[in-house]
Write a structure and sequence with these properties.
CATH class of the largest domain: Alpha Beta
Helix content: 40-55%
Shape: elongated
Strand content: 5-15%
CATH topology of the largest domain: Beta Polymerase, domain 2
Radius of gyration: 21 Å
Length: 292
């Protein structure tokens, strides 16, 4: 087994199946159809909605996580809630929750800013009710501190991943998907959104960026080294510039993974395939092959 073969199989093992993709989209369609019926008087399963998060960025992995859907509400709804007093944003989320409960009465729907969570047996759908912002992006509901709207630019968030992926010959999405597997397997307290931003920053300066999967052992090792160096740093949301602290709660796990990745790379270079696989599995779990 060579490096490229190992990592190709790994990426195949964590990719969603066609059935999972279909089920996820079916859940999205059902929720959006219900919201369109209530807010726009249509039966469209896609209008006024955008897949965001891992589904919009094509960084989805197995086991399936939530399907994140941005739903743009009519401006008239914004005006209607502006007439109210109190926490308007919480009230808006509760209205969306109530509307969805009428369509799915046996589903435990939760409104928790800025999303309304609709749990299904196969997938959860996280709806982000929002309004189009005059200066671009969307206004999403924040319920803390009496309620407020926060501007988010989901198009910019998706574009930075897409552009990086094109520039790096597919490295970006592969790296994000692998590191999300590490995040899940090792219970790493680092947000997926932050991993995405760190991956694009890392690959913009990595000397082997754009290379084939033969370099993926080095890519994982060098990204973990980069990550360790970013403890307590800030990252910035595309489109809005919002400052987000990375903290350091994840640092110990990142250092441990880095040491294992270094060992795995050494074993790969000496053709000790099984020993390398044992180290990789300590990072990623059984989805990455131990041996041929």
């Amino acid at each position: 087994m060579g490096v490229a073969d190992r990592f190709s199989k790994f990426l195949g093992n964590i990719a969603l199946t066609e059935e999972q993709k279909t089920k996820g989209l079916e859940r999205r369609d059902a929720v959006v159809r219900s919201l369109n019926a209530n807010y726009y008087g249509t039966t469209s399963a896609t209008n006024h909605s955008t897949l965001v998060g891992s589904w919009g960025k094509f960084t989805r992995i197995r086991p399936p996580r939530d399907v994140d859907v941005l739903f743009t509400l009519p401006y008239a709804t914004y005006e209607r809630f502006q007439q109210r007093t109190g926490n308007r944003q919480s009230q808006l989320l509760q209205e969306v929750r109530t509307l969805l409960l009428s369509a799915y009465p046996n589903t435990a729907i939760r409104g928790d800013g800025p999303v309304v969570l609709v749990p299904f047996s196969a997938f959860n759908v996280e709806v982000i009710p929002a309004f189009a912002a005059q200066d671009g992006g969307h206004l999403v509901c924040m319920t803390d501190g009496g309620g407020s709207y926060k501007r988010a630019d989901y198009d910019a968030e998706m574009k930075i991943v897409s552009d990086s992926n094109s520039t790096t010959n597919g490295n970006t999405r592969d790296l994000v998907r692998m590191m999300k597997t590490w995040q899940g397997y090792c219970s790493v307290p680092l947000k997926s959104f932050h991993l995405e931003l760190l991956a694009t920053t890392f690959l913009a300066q990595w000397e082997y960026s754009g290379k084939s999967k033969t370099y993926y052992d080095w890519m994982v090792r060098d990204f973990l080294s980069f990550l360790v160096s970013r403890a307590n740093w800030n990252v910035y949301a595309p489109g809005t510039g919002e400052t987000m602290s990375l903290g350091n709660a994840w640092e110990t796990r990142a250092k441990s993974a880095l040491e294992r990745a270094k060992k795995a790379c050494d074993y790969e270079s000496s053709s000790s395939w099984t020993l390398a696989g044992e180290e990789w599995q300590k990072i990623f779990g059984p989805d990455i092959p131990k041996a041929a």
